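Render this sequence as a predicted structure.
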Amino acid sequence: MNPPNSDSLFTITPGAGDLPKLTLVAPDGAQAEIYLHGAHVTSWIPAGGQERLFLSRASRFRADAPIRGGIPIVFPQFAMLGSLPQHGFVRVMPWEFVEVKKAGTGASAIFRLRDTKESRALWANAFLAELTLAIDGNQLAVTLAILNTGTEPFAFTAAFHTYLAVTDLAATVVETLTGVRYLDKAAGGIENRQTSPQMGFSGEVDQVYFDAPAELHLIEPNRTTRIRSEGFPDAVLWNPAAVKCAAVSDLVPDDYQRFVCVEAGVIGTPINLAPGTRWQGTQTLLA
């Protein structure tokens, strides 16, 4: 357990399941929590605001299981699009805390993960992953950087599987996707094109949008969250609806009413990374 540092920006304490958790508090009062297990952001409270991320009350905080909610890191495989476990393996690996920095009224924290014997047994590539979390005022930015530290090129897909808390799912829509081609996984994997200016959540939604706009808007009756991406060409919308939510063991049966996943991803065209080269992508949430 670490005491607050000299600037009182952060503490590292045992979190749920005794997994180490870093609490970051910016000078302007913005706050975030991130578990070293998976470098998983579980809480974000903008300065003067309220919690904006959803975290399941049934989430398993165990070293061998992903955390349900917040911002899971998907790498090096999105979903089941390959031979690896769903969404890859870095979300269930212990990351190294590197440092916290003050930046004006905001603050940032950096975490790193290198390949291990266990990761190479699943995916035989040498890499260095870095997660940077930055908070400032009404803004949260998460950046994933991947460096190929090996001697052979490798390809990967990745995403931030971001769970945004909503107060009225029936009145929540996502805008700015008009005209974008998408894969409708809930309808059996058919391709379609978004024709409506608003995408609602009246039933199960599991759609991968290819070459999506760099900014999406999650609109609720009393607030709008702007979601910006850089380096991630694709976007995913997900809500399991009642039947599938009830079948997920680490969700409460009515949890689907409390969140919408709006994910920045690189999915349609994998990244091919040559030895010694680096890729990065950022998702920024603005309350």
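Summary. Confidence is low (pLDDT under 50) at residues 1-6. The chain has one domain: 10-286.
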